[in-house]
From TrEMBL:
InterPro entries: LrgA/CidA
Keyword Thylakoid: no
Main location: membrane
UniProt entry tagged with the keyword Transmembrane: yes
Protein name per UniProt: CidA/LrgA family protein
TM segment ranges: 27-47, 59-81, 87-110
Length: 117
């Protein structure tokens, strides 16, 4: 019975999210909206963790299986990745590095302003 109840809560969140997506004609993914709704229900205490645990625990154990399609997508496009490897490598290095430098500069600026007061 506990499995049925916890599954019903999760599926109800998904059903409401799909209905909202259709009603609002939104391109926002319904599963993501359902997870946000479930988080809000947990944070407000409407739903307790022990109510979801029977169904959520087995799903979390098999979570890596949900990422297999992304890995297959990468393997399917290895030729394209091979053609543009230098651009991809540059982007993977320059974007994080510039982000770190920008954030560091902003923090240093505000730390300097804080000391001037």
């Amino acid at each position: 019975m506990k499995y049925l109840f916890s599954s019903a809560i999760i599926l109800a969140c998904l059903a409401v999210a799909k209905y909202l997506s259709l009603l609002l004609n939104s391109s926002f993914p319904a599963p993501l909206l359902a997870m946000v709704m479930l988080l809000l229900l947990l944070l407000t205490g409407v739903v307790k963790e022990h109510q979801l645990k029977p169904t959520a625990s087995p799903l979390l154990n098999y979570m890596p299986l949900f990422f297999i399609p992304a890995g297959v997508g990468i393997v399917e496009h290895l030729g394209l990745i091979g053609q543009h490897w230098s651009l991809l490598l540059t982007v993977f290095i320059i974007v994080p590095l510039s982000s770190v430098l920008l954030i560091g500069g902003v923090i240093a600026y505000f730390k300097g302003r804080e000391n001037d007061d």
